[in-house]
Write a structure and sequence with these properties.
This protein is about 75% helix and about 0% strand. The protein has five helices and no strands. Helix 1 packs antiparallel against helix 2. It starts with a helix and ends in an 8-residue tail after the last helix.
Length: about 120
Amino acid sequence: MAGALGYALVQPAPQALAVFLALALGFAAPFTLLAWLPGLGRVLPRPGPWMATLKQVLAFPTLAAAAWLAWVLALQAGAGRSARCWARPWRWASLHGCMAAHSAGNCKARATGRCRHSPG
């Protein structure tokens, strides 16, 4: 979506409006389908504890993307040595180690029933 918005911002008005229209239709289509065909709601996944797990799993790629973008910004801004230190592989290895430790601790907490995300 960011690429489409970037493209739209540098195009003449008719092309930009076409891009925004396509984005709007893409966002509205699932809701419109569910409104027209309520039976489709049966095929949607039910909420449950899996949602908390998915949220935690998806937080790590978001964190990694934020760290990478901060590194790119520091390189472009000319931060010098502090920016280059993010490029060292051991930094990324420590990030992955933190992710594994968090996941292991979360699994252990769920097994013992002491997880704060557990229902009840």
